[in-house]
Write a structure and sequence with these properties.
single chain, TIM Barrel, Lyase, Ornithine Decarboxylase, Chain A, domain 1, six-stranded antiparallel β-barrel, 11 helices, 18 strands, 24% strand
Length: 353
Protein backbone atom coordinates (compact mmCIF):
# COMPACT_ATOMS: atom_id res chain seq x y z
CA UNK A 1 0.00 0.00 0.00
CA UNK A 2 1.21 3.56 -0.63
CA UNK A 3 2.05 5.89 2.21
CA UNK A 4 -1.27 7.37 3.40
CA UNK A 5 -0.55 11.09 3.01
CA UNK A 6 -2.23 12.89 0.14
CA UNK A 7 -3.61 16.27 -0.89
CA UNK A 8 -7.17 16.54 -2.19
CA UNK A 9 -8.16 19.47 -4.43
CA UNK A 10 -11.85 20.40 -4.51
CA UNK A 11 -12.93 21.86 -7.88
CA UNK A 12 -16.31 22.91 -6.52
CA UNK A 13 -14.59 24.98 -3.82
CA UNK A 14 -12.47 26.71 -6.47
CA UNK A 15 -15.58 27.56 -8.46
CA UNK A 16 -17.32 28.80 -5.31
CA UNK A 17 -14.44 31.10 -4.45
CA UNK A 18 -14.41 32.53 -7.96
CA UNK A 19 -18.12 33.26 -7.55
CA UNK A 20 -17.36 35.09 -4.30
CA UNK A 21 -14.88 37.26 -6.19
CA UNK A 22 -17.40 37.80 -8.99
CA UNK A 23 -20.08 38.95 -6.54
CA UNK A 24 -17.67 41.46 -5.02
CA UNK A 25 -16.82 43.26 -8.26
CA UNK A 26 -17.95 44.11 -11.76
CA UNK A 27 -14.34 44.22 -12.97
CA UNK A 28 -12.74 41.60 -15.17
CA UNK A 29 -11.00 38.91 -13.14
CA UNK A 30 -7.34 38.03 -13.65
CA UNK A 31 -7.06 34.83 -11.60
CA UNK A 32 -3.55 34.42 -10.22
CA UNK A 33 -2.31 30.87 -10.85
CA UNK A 34 1.43 31.38 -10.46
CA UNK A 35 3.52 28.85 -8.50
CA UNK A 36 1.59 25.90 -9.94
CA UNK A 37 -1.65 27.62 -8.88
CA UNK A 38 -0.33 28.01 -5.33
CA UNK A 39 0.43 24.29 -5.24
CA UNK A 40 -3.00 23.23 -6.52
CA UNK A 41 -1.99 22.23 -10.05
CA UNK A 42 -1.74 24.70 -12.92
CA UNK A 43 -3.89 23.05 -15.60
CA UNK A 44 -6.48 21.64 -13.23
CA UNK A 45 -6.93 24.96 -11.44
CA UNK A 46 -7.23 26.83 -14.73
CA UNK A 47 -9.90 24.34 -15.83
CA UNK A 48 -11.92 24.99 -12.68
CA UNK A 49 -11.43 28.76 -12.99
CA UNK A 50 -12.24 28.93 -16.70
CA UNK A 51 -14.90 31.61 -16.17
CA UNK A 52 -12.18 34.12 -15.26
CA UNK A 53 -11.30 36.54 -18.05
CA UNK A 54 -7.56 36.14 -17.51
CA UNK A 55 -4.81 34.19 -15.77
CA UNK A 56 -1.67 35.64 -14.21
CA UNK A 57 1.51 33.54 -14.18
CA UNK A 58 5.28 33.98 -13.83
CA UNK A 59 6.88 31.54 -16.26
CA UNK A 60 6.45 31.95 -20.01
CA UNK A 61 6.55 28.18 -20.46
CA UNK A 62 3.63 27.77 -18.03
CA UNK A 63 1.69 30.26 -20.13
CA UNK A 64 2.57 28.34 -23.29
CA UNK A 65 1.39 25.10 -21.65
CA UNK A 66 -1.89 26.75 -20.72
CA UNK A 67 -2.42 28.16 -24.21
CA UNK A 68 -1.67 24.79 -25.80
CA UNK A 69 -4.22 23.21 -23.44
CA UNK A 70 -6.84 25.44 -25.03
CA UNK A 71 -7.02 28.51 -22.80
CA UNK A 72 -8.44 31.53 -24.63
CA UNK A 73 -8.12 33.93 -21.69
CA UNK A 74 -5.67 36.81 -21.42
CA UNK A 75 -2.47 35.23 -20.08
CA UNK A 76 -0.32 37.74 -18.21
CA UNK A 77 3.34 37.28 -17.23
CA UNK A 78 3.52 39.05 -13.86
CA UNK A 79 7.28 39.64 -13.90
CA UNK A 80 7.40 40.13 -17.64
CA UNK A 81 10.05 38.48 -19.76
CA UNK A 82 13.62 37.71 -18.74
CA UNK A 83 15.30 37.73 -22.15
CA UNK A 84 14.55 39.04 -25.64
CA UNK A 85 14.18 35.41 -26.74
CA UNK A 86 11.03 35.15 -24.61
CA UNK A 87 9.43 37.71 -26.91
CA UNK A 88 9.24 35.10 -29.67
CA UNK A 89 7.06 32.90 -27.47
CA UNK A 90 5.02 35.88 -26.26
CA UNK A 91 4.27 36.72 -29.88
CA UNK A 92 3.60 33.15 -31.01
CA UNK A 93 1.19 32.41 -28.15
CA UNK A 94 -0.41 35.86 -27.88
CA UNK A 95 0.65 36.49 -24.28
CA UNK A 96 0.44 39.74 -22.30
CA UNK A 97 3.48 40.92 -20.40
CA UNK A 98 4.27 43.21 -17.52
CA UNK A 99 7.00 45.77 -18.15
CA UNK A 100 8.64 46.98 -14.97
CA UNK A 101 12.11 48.23 -15.95
CA UNK A 102 13.98 50.11 -18.65
CA UNK A 103 15.75 46.98 -19.90
CA UNK A 104 12.42 45.31 -20.71
CA UNK A 105 11.21 48.51 -22.31
CA UNK A 106 14.25 48.59 -24.58
CA UNK A 107 13.83 44.91 -25.46
CA UNK A 108 10.36 45.60 -26.86
CA UNK A 109 12.09 46.75 -30.03
CA UNK A 110 12.79 43.07 -30.73
CA UNK A 111 9.12 42.06 -30.59
CA UNK A 112 8.45 40.34 -33.92
CA UNK A 113 4.84 41.35 -34.60
CA UNK A 114 3.49 44.82 -35.26
CA UNK A 115 0.57 46.15 -33.26
CA UNK A 116 -0.14 42.92 -31.35
CA UNK A 117 1.43 43.16 -27.88
CA UNK A 118 -0.59 43.73 -24.71
CA UNK A 119 1.63 45.53 -22.18
CA UNK A 120 0.97 46.05 -18.49
CA UNK A 121 3.14 48.83 -17.06
CA UNK A 122 4.02 48.30 -13.40
CA UNK A 123 3.94 51.47 -11.29
CA UNK A 124 5.88 51.45 -8.02
CA UNK A 125 3.41 53.19 -5.71
CA UNK A 126 5.22 52.22 -2.51
CA UNK A 127 5.80 48.46 -2.48
CA UNK A 128 9.38 49.08 -3.68
CA UNK A 129 9.88 45.73 -5.36
CA UNK A 130 9.21 46.18 -9.07
CA UNK A 131 7.97 49.00 -11.24
CA UNK A 132 8.66 52.44 -12.58
CA UNK A 133 8.55 55.37 -10.20
CA UNK A 134 5.49 57.60 -10.73
CA UNK A 135 7.63 60.40 -12.13
CA UNK A 136 8.97 58.02 -14.79
CA UNK A 137 5.55 57.07 -16.14
CA UNK A 138 5.05 60.07 -18.49
CA UNK A 139 8.24 59.23 -20.37
CA UNK A 140 7.34 55.52 -20.46
CA UNK A 141 3.86 56.22 -21.81
CA UNK A 142 5.20 58.63 -24.41
CA UNK A 143 7.69 56.01 -25.56
CA UNK A 144 4.97 53.37 -25.88
CA UNK A 145 2.50 55.63 -27.65
CA UNK A 146 4.34 55.39 -30.95
CA UNK A 147 5.79 51.89 -30.53
CA UNK A 148 4.94 49.69 -33.50
CA UNK A 149 4.53 46.53 -31.40
CA UNK A 150 1.94 47.75 -28.91
CA UNK A 151 -1.76 46.90 -29.13
CA UNK A 152 -2.82 48.35 -25.77
CA UNK A 153 -1.46 49.38 -22.39
CA UNK A 154 -2.73 48.63 -18.89
CA UNK A 155 -1.34 50.43 -15.85
CA UNK A 156 -0.97 48.38 -12.67
CA UNK A 157 0.39 48.50 -9.15
CA UNK A 158 0.48 46.21 -6.11
CA UNK A 159 -0.52 47.04 -2.54
CA UNK A 160 1.75 46.22 0.38
CA UNK A 161 -0.80 46.70 3.21
CA UNK A 162 -4.22 45.84 1.75
CA UNK A 163 -4.61 43.08 4.35
CA UNK A 164 -3.55 45.27 7.28
CA UNK A 165 -4.80 48.29 9.19
CA UNK A 166 -2.66 50.69 7.10
CA UNK A 167 -4.83 49.91 4.08
CA UNK A 168 -4.39 51.19 0.54
CA UNK A 169 -5.13 54.93 0.70
CA UNK A 170 -1.57 56.25 0.34
CA UNK A 171 -0.61 53.96 -2.53
CA UNK A 172 -3.94 54.37 -4.30
CA UNK A 173 -3.70 58.16 -4.16
CA UNK A 174 -0.20 58.01 -5.61
CA UNK A 175 -1.26 55.61 -8.38
CA UNK A 176 -4.36 57.62 -9.28
CA UNK A 177 -2.41 60.86 -9.24
CA UNK A 178 -0.24 59.71 -12.12
CA UNK A 179 -2.56 57.39 -14.03
CA UNK A 180 -5.67 59.59 -14.20
CA UNK A 181 -3.92 61.54 -16.93
CA UNK A 182 -4.11 58.53 -19.30
CA UNK A 183 -6.96 56.77 -21.03
CA UNK A 184 -5.60 53.35 -20.18
CA UNK A 185 -6.99 50.31 -18.44
CA UNK A 186 -5.87 49.95 -14.80
CA UNK A 187 -5.42 47.12 -12.31
CA UNK A 188 -4.63 47.44 -8.61
CA UNK A 189 -6.70 45.04 -6.48
CA UNK A 190 -5.32 41.82 -5.02
CA UNK A 191 -7.55 39.50 -2.93
CA UNK A 192 -7.56 41.73 0.14
CA UNK A 193 -8.29 44.92 -1.80
CA UNK A 194 -10.95 43.19 -3.88
CA UNK A 195 -12.81 42.14 -0.73
CA UNK A 196 -12.33 45.31 1.31
CA UNK A 197 -11.73 48.33 -0.95
CA UNK A 198 -14.16 48.70 -3.89
CA UNK A 199 -12.40 51.89 -5.05
CA UNK A 200 -9.43 49.73 -6.09
CA UNK A 201 -11.30 47.48 -8.49
CA UNK A 202 -10.80 49.45 -11.73
CA UNK A 203 -10.79 47.49 -15.02
CA UNK A 204 -9.07 44.31 -13.81
CA UNK A 205 -8.81 42.71 -10.37
CA UNK A 206 -6.18 40.09 -9.52
CA UNK A 207 -7.46 37.64 -6.87
CA UNK A 208 -5.02 34.96 -5.78
CA UNK A 209 -5.15 33.66 -2.21
CA UNK A 210 -8.93 33.96 -1.85
CA UNK A 211 -9.49 31.66 -4.83
CA UNK A 212 -7.82 28.84 -2.92
CA UNK A 213 -10.07 29.30 0.09
CA UNK A 214 -7.84 31.18 2.51
CA UNK A 215 -8.60 34.53 4.10
CA UNK A 216 -6.16 37.39 3.48
CA UNK A 217 -7.17 38.98 6.79
CA UNK A 218 -5.90 37.84 10.20
CA UNK A 219 -9.10 38.95 11.94
CA UNK A 220 -11.61 37.49 9.44
CA UNK A 221 -11.97 33.80 8.65
CA UNK A 222 -12.40 32.35 5.19
CA UNK A 223 -15.77 30.99 6.26
CA UNK A 224 -16.93 34.48 7.22
CA UNK A 225 -16.00 35.62 3.72
CA UNK A 226 -17.94 32.79 2.10
CA UNK A 227 -14.77 31.02 0.96
CA UNK A 228 -14.29 27.25 0.97
CA UNK A 229 -10.97 25.43 1.43
CA UNK A 230 -9.72 24.00 -1.86
CA UNK A 231 -6.76 21.93 -0.63
CA UNK A 232 -7.07 19.37 2.15
CA UNK A 233 -3.79 17.78 3.22
CA UNK A 234 -4.53 14.56 5.10
CA UNK A 235 -2.79 11.45 6.34
CA UNK A 236 -3.21 8.75 8.99
CA UNK A 237 -1.91 7.70 12.38
CA UNK A 238 0.80 5.07 11.94
CA UNK A 239 1.54 4.61 15.65
CA UNK A 240 -0.28 5.07 18.98
CA UNK A 241 1.40 4.74 22.39
CA UNK A 242 1.32 5.84 26.01
CA UNK A 243 4.22 7.79 27.48
CA UNK A 244 4.92 8.41 31.15
CA UNK A 245 5.37 11.70 32.98
CA UNK A 246 8.80 13.10 32.19
CA UNK A 247 9.19 11.30 28.86
CA UNK A 248 9.74 13.37 25.74
CA UNK A 249 8.60 13.22 22.12
CA UNK A 250 10.77 13.53 19.01
CA UNK A 251 14.13 15.10 18.29
CA UNK A 252 15.69 17.21 21.04
CA UNK A 253 12.84 16.37 23.43
CA UNK A 254 11.00 19.55 22.53
CA UNK A 255 7.86 18.23 24.27
CA UNK A 256 8.06 16.61 27.69
CA UNK A 257 4.95 15.11 29.26
CA UNK A 258 3.87 16.45 32.64
CA UNK A 259 1.74 13.34 33.22
CA UNK A 260 0.92 10.10 31.46
CA UNK A 261 -0.06 11.01 27.89
CA UNK A 262 -1.48 9.10 24.93
CA UNK A 263 0.29 10.18 21.75
CA UNK A 264 0.18 9.34 18.07
CA UNK A 265 2.57 9.53 15.14
CA UNK A 266 1.33 10.88 11.79
CA UNK A 267 2.79 10.00 8.40
CA UNK A 268 3.63 13.59 7.48
CA UNK A 269 6.77 15.65 7.92
CA UNK A 270 8.73 18.54 6.53
CA UNK A 271 9.75 16.51 3.46
CA UNK A 272 6.04 16.50 2.59
CA UNK A 273 5.79 20.26 2.96
CA UNK A 274 4.59 20.54 6.56
CA UNK A 275 6.52 23.35 8.29
CA UNK A 276 9.39 22.04 10.44
CA UNK A 277 9.16 25.13 12.63
CA UNK A 278 5.53 24.41 13.62
CA UNK A 279 5.66 24.32 17.44
CA UNK A 280 3.92 22.09 19.94
CA UNK A 281 0.30 23.21 20.02
CA UNK A 282 -0.19 23.69 16.27
CA UNK A 283 -3.80 22.65 15.58
CA UNK A 284 -4.50 19.35 13.82
CA UNK A 285 -7.55 17.10 13.39
CA UNK A 286 -7.69 13.40 14.27
CA UNK A 287 -10.94 11.60 13.44
CA UNK A 288 -12.46 15.03 12.88
CA UNK A 289 -11.58 16.16 16.40
CA UNK A 290 -9.25 19.05 17.10
CA UNK A 291 -6.04 18.40 18.97
CA UNK A 292 -2.43 19.63 18.88
CA UNK A 293 0.94 18.63 17.53
CA UNK A 294 3.65 17.55 19.97
CA UNK A 295 7.39 18.08 19.70
CA UNK A 296 9.58 18.83 16.72
CA UNK A 297 8.37 17.95 13.22
CA UNK A 298 10.58 15.26 11.64
CA UNK A 299 11.33 14.70 7.97
CA UNK A 300 8.57 12.09 7.53
CA UNK A 301 6.55 12.16 10.77
CA UNK A 302 5.08 14.36 13.46
CA UNK A 303 3.57 13.75 16.88
CA UNK A 304 0.02 14.48 18.04
CA UNK A 305 -1.74 14.56 21.39
CA UNK A 306 -4.45 11.86 21.65
CA UNK A 307 -5.34 12.45 25.29
CA UNK A 308 -8.91 13.47 24.51
CA UNK A 309 -9.49 11.39 21.38
CA UNK A 310 -10.38 8.00 22.78
CA UNK A 311 -11.32 6.41 19.45
CA UNK A 312 -7.99 7.22 17.77
CA UNK A 313 -6.05 4.21 16.52
CA UNK A 314 -3.57 3.24 13.84
CA UNK A 315 -5.23 4.15 10.54
CA UNK A 316 -7.31 7.02 11.95
CA UNK A 317 -7.64 9.93 9.52
CA UNK A 318 -5.63 13.05 10.23
CA UNK A 319 -6.23 16.44 8.59
CA UNK A 320 -3.17 18.71 8.56
CA UNK A 321 -5.15 21.57 7.02
CA UNK A 322 -8.15 22.09 4.81
CA UNK A 323 -11.58 20.57 5.45
CA UNK A 324 -12.47 21.46 9.05
CA UNK A 325 -9.16 23.20 9.75
CA UNK A 326 -8.36 26.47 7.95
CA UNK A 327 -4.88 26.58 6.45
CA UNK A 328 -4.39 30.13 7.71
CA UNK A 329 -4.92 28.93 11.30
CA UNK A 330 -2.15 26.35 10.93
CA UNK A 331 0.08 28.94 9.29
CA UNK A 332 -0.46 31.46 12.08
CA UNK A 333 0.43 28.86 14.71
CA UNK A 334 3.59 28.02 12.77
CA UNK A 335 4.60 31.66 12.39
CA UNK A 336 4.17 31.73 8.62
CA UNK A 337 1.46 32.42 6.02
CA UNK A 338 -0.98 30.16 4.22
CA UNK A 339 0.64 30.93 0.84
CA UNK A 340 3.84 29.22 1.99
CA UNK A 341 2.09 26.10 3.25
CA UNK A 342 0.09 25.55 0.07
CA UNK A 343 3.02 26.26 -2.23
CA UNK A 344 5.36 23.99 -0.25
CA UNK A 345 3.53 20.69 -0.85
CA UNK A 346 6.27 18.30 -1.93
CA UNK A 347 6.28 16.43 -5.23
CA UNK A 348 6.18 13.12 -3.35
CA UNK A 349 2.69 13.88 -1.98
CA UNK A 350 0.00 12.40 -4.26
CA UNK A 351 -2.61 14.94 -5.35
CA UNK A 352 -6.20 13.91 -6.07
CA UNK A 353 -8.89 16.02 -7.72
Amino acid sequence: MPRPIHAHIDFDALKNNLRVARRATSSRIMAVIKANAYGHGLLRAAEALDEAEGFALLDVHDAVQLREAGSRQTLLLLEGFFSPEDLQLIAEYDLATVIHNVQQLTSLDAYPRRGKLQVWIKVNSGMNRLGFMPEEIPAVMERLKSHSAIRDVTLMTHFSHADEADGVAVQLEKFNGITNAYRAHCSTANSAALLRYPATHRDWVRPGLMLYGASPFPETSAQQLGLKPVMTLSSELISVREIKAGESVGYAGMFRAESGTRIGTVACGYADGYPRHAPTGTPILVNGQRTRTLGRVSMDMLGVDLSNIKDAKVGSRVVLWGEGLPVEEVAQAAGTISYELMCAIAARVPVGY
